[in-house]
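Input/output pair, single chain:
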Amino acid sequence: LMRKTTALVESCFSISAMAAPLLSTVLYAAGGLSGLLLANALSYAVAAWLELRIKLPPAPAVAEEASGGVQVSAYAMLREDPYLRRMLLSFFCMNLFLGPVLVFLPLFARQIYQGTIQTLAWLELALGLGTALGAAALSVLAFRGENAARIPLALGAVSLGYLAFTMGRTPWIGMPAVALLGFALSIANVLI
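Output:
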């Protein structure tokens, strides 16, 4: 259930990642950078309003019950649980090394690919599509085998996508590369 729920959440992020570049180019063409930033600010205001409307039930005291009524610090959990340490370190590395792709995607579109904002939009669309396909695969497929074997495969695919993106010199290499990167990240994020 947790894996399916996480995959659905990932799908939500992926769909917005696909829609955003297309919508951004339309808004940029219609209202310039100021109009685009205003629309972005409004989207955050709507998200904040929606968050305020969510009513959660009180959380059960699972951590306290498991520890005999004593609250366990996050540091103690990390010290005692090697699986948790590896999982968090893996998330850290994935996000640390994904950062340059996301931060420098506009720079690649402009300087390496000699493109325009449409080139950037196509690259972001490919990344979002890959992420959405990964989340969809997790939602409908039952992956067999141990996570210990599947996680390195997903992270290896992330590495291949990253390398192909940074080594390729055309958007036609970059788009499939970032799509693979998004697909593999989506899988890895849920499996870890």
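The chain has a mean pLDDT of 75. The radius of gyration is 20 Å.
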